[in-house]
Prior knowledge:
Layout: E1 2-4, E2 14-17, H1 19-29, H2 41-49, E3 52-53, H3 63-72, H4 77-85, E4 90-94, E5 98-102, H5 110-119, H6 129-143, E6 146-147, H7 165-175, E7 179-185, E8 188-193, H8 194-197, H9 200-204, H10 209-224, E9 226-227, H11 229-235, H12 240-246, E10 253-258, E11 269-274, H13 276-284, E12 293-294, H14 305-312, E13 334-338, E14 341-351, E15 354-362, H15 368-381, E16 386-392, H16 398-406
Parallel strand pairs: 2-10, 15-16
Antiparallel strand pairs: 1-2, 3-5, 4-5, 6-8, 7-8, 9-11, 10-11, 12-13, 13-14, 14-15
Amino acid sequence: MSTASEPSTAESSTTELSNDEARRIALRAQGLLGAPDRRGGVRAMLRRLGSVQLDTISVLARSHELIPYARLGAVGREAVEAAYWSGNRSFEYWSHAACVLPVEEWPLFAFRRRAFERRGHRWHRMEDAERSCAEIVARLRAEGPLTTKELGGAKKGGEWWDWSESKIAVEWLLDTGVVVCAERRGWRRVYTLAEQAVPAELLAAEPDDEACLRQLVLQSGRALGVATEKDLADYHRLKVEQVAAALPASGLVPVEVAGWGRPGSAAEPARAWADPAALAAFEAQPRGRHRTTLLSPFDSLIWDRARTERVFGFTHRLEAYTPKHKRVHGYFTMPLLSGGQLVGRVDPAREGSTLVARQVSLTTPKAVPALAESLREAAEWVGCSSVRVEQLHDEALRPALEKLLAA
Length: 407
């Protein structure tokens, strides 16, 4: 890490980073390099990341459970759920996708709630918006938190997108901040009035759009460590022009990262932005203990596919929605992280008390011990007593792998 500067002005100083340095700063920012804050547990992790994506797919576990597992190890799954959903310390809203967010970020999404209000609808339109919304608010005020099913059901009876009037109404109230989802019960959203779930001082805060975007850009920069404008925009699904306008006052500092320039130019630097605290921490301790783990395909370390290719030189795609005969690596491919690099892929499943690795590939034979470690740890975490590897891209590695799995 070096600093280039012109003698005429301090503002022209720009930190230069190699791709390797930027990668390690990103890993540390994501809680995957160095000692994690185990005392703070899942809640501290959520505050650090600022956003944990939710998804309906459950293989080993649901994605929002896999995120803390990757960083903290075998955290009890009930403890994970309690950390997210108890005590009104978090809420679900539209960030990178549907995400769990720390409740402290409630004011920062006022810009998105106002944008919904200006638009007047999301996907569906209500037959009688005033009456339908009033009925939902009245029921929640009288009866307390309710699921969609308890409010009358989600569908009219057709396809999944053929929503009932009550479903459209409660989702619209969630979009605009009248209602909040501060809990999931059996994977169903539990809706309650925001005034009953969000702390009064946060509910009353209404920062303007400029302030919201500035803070969200700063939060994204802290979670990513080092990022381009597009990386920052992708984290909370902002527009690139919104990020560009917010950056000068965000507190992030400009850097240049070698190899982040034009595709095909390995050494060309690119303009990026970094969290100054992350830079300082890296200078003080550039090394640290790397986590070896399987990553959810929805993990914020890798959810931006272009960034993943740039930072790790690793191509990853979720193939769950790809027709089976067209899949390359499997239904729910989980990248293998070891030594700060992505060194393989595992498509897992469970059969009774056996964790099954349906399809496994490694970028190097040296990753066999890391693969065995990650499979054994994951199996223990989800309550499996054995591991079976079905398809291995290089069968010559099987004896060594099975020996390690049996140890």
